[in-house]
Structure formats: C-alpha cells, structure tokens
Amino acid sequence: MPRRPPGRFDQVGRLLIQWDKGEGTVAFDDFRLVRGTRGERSCLPTVDERLTLAFPGGKGHRFVSDNFIVLTDVPGINAASVKPLLKRLESGLTLLHERYRVPRRMLGRAPLCIFARKEDYVAFFARLGKHFGVGLAPPSADGYSALGYGASTWDPKQGLDRPVFVHEAMHAALEQLLHLASDGNWIQEGLANAVQARLHLESTKADRSDLFARRARGESVFQPLGVLLAMRRPGTQRYLQLATFLEFLADKYAAQLPTFWNKVTTSWKLPHDSGRLALEAALDQPIETIGTAWITWGRTYYR
C-alpha cells in the first residue's frame, strides 16, 4: 500500500483513491475522527511537540500566554522580554473577535517561531512539510505561515516589537478560528493586515484618504472589488486594499460578519471561489453595490 495514494472527490463527495499498484478504485464515503486522550485537542500538537519540531536537539525555548506560544532559539530572550509581545498578540486576537467578529474557537495556542538564523527558518518549513507529507515552497520574505505555524527571523535592530510577528501570529490563529489555510487568500491576508495596521500603525504609511479619492476619480489604484475577491492569491501589493475592505465590513456590517464567516468556513470551495457568493448572501447585496459603498465609505472614514 503506498504512503499517499492520489485521490479525488466525485460528484457526491466520496473520496476515490487509485492505488499505485493494482486496478480499480476504492471509495471512502464516511470519515470519522476518534477522540484521543486529550479530547478535542488530540488533533493538535502539544507545546513540547511543537518546540521539538521547530528546534530539534533542545535548542529552543518556549513562552506562553493564554492563546499563543512563542518558540525561539534567540539568545537573551526571556520571559520578561517576551511578555510585551505576547500581550500584543493577545490584543490582536481580541481585535479579531470584537472588531471583526471572528468566532471564538481556539483549540490550542497558536505558535509563532522566531529563528536566530535565516537558514534555520528556511529549514523549518522544509522539515514541517516533510512531517505532514506535503511540499511547501521555501520562505522568501521576512515572515511565513503554513500548516498552523507562523514564523519569522530575528533582527536585533527591531527586537521583539516587529509588525511581522503580529502578522504571522494572526495567520496561525486564523487557521484555527476559521479553519482556513494561510496560503495567501484574501481573507487571511485581509484580516492579518488589518490587525497589524491597528497594532503597528507605523508599518503602513500610505495615505488611505488619497488612495480612495483617486479610486473615486476613476484612477486604477485599487482593483474592482469583484476582481480582487476572485484572486486566489492577491499578492502583497493588494494587502492594503484588503485591510481597508475588512475595516469597511467591520465598521458597516458587523452584525452580518458572523454569518459571512460561517458561510466561508462551511464551504467546500476556496475563498476566491466562495468568498464573493458568501459575501453577497450575508450582506444581501450584489458585489457591485458593496464595492461602491466601500469606496464611498473610505473617502470619509480615512479623512
């Protein structure tokens, strides 16, 4: 029996697997998870297991708060120095819940790994992918998130008060909160950037008022909303636009956001396929009307 046979879902949701050897297909139409000794937390690694995976050989240290773990091998970081960072991450989670109405369903602490050396940062994601039997692209930016882990590297000039730490930790938390992979989709990036902007205002210096004024004049600064939400991975040049759109939803449609999150997280489709339809259904408006209202709102809100 091969380790990871190729498979696909048929029209009625059954998983069809073709074994590498032999003929025919095997259909599985009923998957069940059996609880382990830690109940519903059994599917999540323990703090010690996460530490060992991130820093094999006992090189790392762990620091925990109610909902986050900081795992690091940076010399000199201790419980006192990391406490403000953990407090800021908890503030970010509070924003997700209270402003953006993301559901409260953390099963375990979201991990943020801070590596002293860039080569160890890159090697971790290769090791993480191998651990889960998937291929991960090596990180090329200052921060990277995958498979429930957020990570970055140490910069002594910036210390622990770095916007990227908040950004990647929010990605890790959102994987639990929304059951949504951190793969560059618009919901993950919109929320992570919105929280980052609120906790690190200096990290986004763009004049938002001017951007919205230019868009209202017909200048192609922002992508039309329907186009933006149909992008599988919008890219960093669209992160500011996504953050302002999440602020718009939080400011004008807070009551509808829980319905929207529920529609997104229960859909079998990816956010660029399901997000627009879920948004139109939750807000009971066509995407063109929502997009126009967003641009009008932004010209006043950011003034």
Reported by name, the CATH topology of the largest domain is Glutaredoxin
State the end-to-end CA separation: 63 Å
Question: What does the largest sheet look like?
Answer: 5 strands, mixed
Low-confidence segments? 1-6, 9-14
SSE order: EEEHEEHEHEEHHHHHHHH
State the secondary-structure class.
alpha/beta
Number of strands: 8
The total tally of domains equals: 3
Tell the overall outline: globular
* Rg over CA atoms: 21 Å
CATH C-level category of the largest domain: Alpha Beta
Question: Considering DSSP H and I runs of 4 or more, what fraction of the residues is helical?
Answer: 40-55%
Strand order of the biggest β-sheet:
4-5-6-8-7
CATH architecture of the largest domain: 3-Layer(aba) Sandwich
Average predicted local confidence, pLDDT: 86
β-sheet strand percentage: 5-15%
Report the total helices: 11
Structural notes for this entry:
The chain is of the alpha/beta class and 303 residues long. The protein folds into three domains: 1-32; 45-197, Glutaredoxin (3-Layer(aba) Sandwich), CATH 3.40.30; 206-301, no CATH class. The chain is 46% helix and 11% strand. It has eleven helices and eight strands. It has helices at residues 47-54, 79-98, 118-132, 163-178, 186-199, 208-216, 225-229, 239-252, 257-265, 271-283, 287-301; strands at residues 7-9, 15-17, 26-28, 61-64, 68-72, 110-115, 143-146, 149-153. The strands form two sheets. Strands 4-5-6-8-7 form a five-stranded mixed sheet, with helices on both faces. Strands 1-2-3 form a three-stranded antiparallel sheet, with no helix packed on it. It is globular and about 60 Å long.
